[in-house]
């Protein structure tokens, strides 16, 4: 489990590609990999990955074909940075929202509005996922727990504060790039349950 509070942006220093599998080699700061063991879970751009090897400051992660298909990790190149968060430990302060590290879909950056007063991202997403995204609700974007701004049938807006831009890689993305999206699992359960109950009642009344 994760909180959506990114701890660091870490550079991808190598990508070892095999059939159906990419191994990412990511450079961690010493304090970030302290006590990190093989088998530990770490979120990279919001994707929960398992540590397979630790060599000095380099941490290795295997990314299987299904994960490459569903996330933007397939689009990484050497020198890019990923948002990193280590898994939540008992007794830790939860400053964001609970995330699982399981990405539901990707959103495309359709507009960037950057002025001295604000930095706004407008994201386009498959319409079926908009059932779970609400104004002033929250969503996981590349592993960042963020508050949703204006919504439409096909996307939503994010209003990013300078601290978020400083601590994450979101300012590196351009129009047309894709971001990993994790919706709130509780919201999904509530919406799906209500829809199922209403559908059942409608069918019963129609008999």
From TrEMBL:
<comment type="pathway">
    <text>Cofactor biosynthesis; riboflavin biosynthesis; riboflavin from 2-hydroxy-3-oxobutyl phosphate and 5-amino-6-(D-ribitylamino)uracil: step 2/2.</text>
</comment>
<protein>
    <recommendedName>
        <fullName>Riboflavin synthase</fullName>
        <ecNumber>2.5.1.9</ecNumber>
    </recommendedName>
</protein>
<dbReference type="GO" id="GO:0009231">
    <property type="term" value="P:riboflavin biosynthetic process"/>
</dbReference>
<feature type="domain" description="Lumazine-binding">
    <location>
        <begin position="98"/>
        <end position="194"/>
    </location>
</feature>
<keyword id="KW-0677">Repeat</keyword>
<dbReference type="InterPro" id="IPR001783">
    <property type="entry name" value="Lumazine-bd"/>
</dbReference>
<dbReference type="InterPro" id="IPR023366">
    <property type="entry name" value="ATP_synth_asu-like_sf"/>
</dbReference>
<keyword id="KW-0686">Riboflavin biosynthesis</keyword>
<feature type="domain" description="Lumazine-binding">
    <location>
        <begin position="1"/>
        <end position="97"/>
    </location>
</feature>
<comment type="function">
    <text>Catalyzes the dismutation of two molecules of 6,7-dimethyl-8-ribityllumazine, resulting in the formation of riboflavin and 5-amino-6-(D-ribitylamino)uracil.</text>
</comment>
<dbReference type="InterPro" id="IPR017938">
    <property type="entry name" value="Riboflavin_synthase-like_b-brl"/>
</dbReference>
<dbReference type="GO" id="GO:0004746">
    <property type="term" value="F:riboflavin synthase activity"/>
</dbReference>
<dbReference type="Pfam" id="PF00677">
    <property type="entry name" value="Lum_binding"/>
</dbReference>
<keyword id="KW-0808">Transferase</keyword>
<feature type="repeat" description="Lumazine-binding">
    <location>
        <begin position="98"/>
        <end position="194"/>
    </location>
</feature>
<dbReference type="GO" id="GO:0005829">
    <property type="term" value="C:cytosol"/>
</dbReference>
<feature type="repeat" description="Lumazine-binding">
    <location>
        <begin position="1"/>
        <end position="97"/>
    </location>
</feature>
<dbReference type="InterPro" id="IPR026017">
    <property type="entry name" value="Lumazine-bd_dom"/>
</dbReference>
